[in-house]
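ZP: hey, is the 6-O-phosphono-beta-D-fructofuranose complex queued? I don't see it on the tracker
AM: it wasn't, my bad. submitting now with these inputs:
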Amino acid sequence: MSMFRLPSQNLKSRSKKPIARIAVLCSGGDAPGMNAAIRAVVRTAVANNLEVFGISRGYAGLLEGKLAPMNASSVANIIQRGGTVLKTSRCPEFFHRTGRAQAAKVLKAHKIDTLVVIGGDGSFAGAHLLSKEFGINCIGLPGTIDNDIFGSDDTIGFDTSVNTALEAIDRIRDTASSHDRLFIVEVMGKHAGFIALQVGICGGAETILIPEYKVPFGSICKSIDRGIKRGKLSSIIVVAEGYRGGNATEIAKQFEKKGYSAKVAILGHIQRGGAPSAHDRFLASTLGAYSVHAAIHGLKNVIVGLENNQIVFVPFTKVISKKKTITKQYLEISAELAV
Ligand code: F6P
């Protein structure tokens, strides 16, 4: 695991803003490393003489005024824990202006200068509107297992979830090989195939199916047949839950219609839990610390991300208007590796 290069934008050359209070929340699906990010935000704030508030249950808790002061001890012993001590939620009220108006009212009543939002692109879209409509300064930290945030090559939780899914696939491979079976393993990713692609390559999958590309069922069968012809008796197909050609159960049924027998394993939410990997702890700790330094130096309405191994600040407008693309060559490589 390498250290990241620090931002090319020298924060120290910017004049410091007189901010006194920040708040932090988690939003959307939880991701391993969110606790490490909360810890980094709180500790960096305390080290720089800021007051810091934790908001429980994301935007939903914010609307209800669920803010509580935090200090260095509030985040002791959480760096290694999965989930989020602040809890998280998906908040439909925040899609409406009235919801965001209520959120702004609560933040202003508590004299919060900057809100740090740990979450995915939907959460950043909400933060963007909160700043645009009501002048609330926000900073985003990319926290999602899906790794689908434009402006950051990596997201907090992705590495851990890939490792969790991989461990499961290695186990499935043992039993698949003992019984000469075909397994369809479904991993998370409704709209993005980053988890499936990485897990599939690392797990030696015959075929990887992701939401971004639909493959004719005939070619999936061909890849299995090719293996059988060269004496391969067990195979693994990795499919992302949002694959447009069907989920794992539907694909297994298609195989059955063609006379193959296929077992299904849906990994589901186990990919969201567990202790964060060293990589995710480092990512969360460094980006978390920089979110507070960014706020102190007057940056607002940006995410703190990672591009080409360097910490970067990317405006919300860019992050929410663009889609991070899958590198198709990796799919091609995976097909060659399974030949
Ligand atoms: O957080 C991202 C994610 O895990 C996606 O991969 C998945 O499609 C979705 O969340 C599931 O959300 P929920 O836990 O709300 O069902």
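AM: back. Residues 104 and 114 are 11 Å apart (CA to CA).
ZP: great, adding it to the tracker
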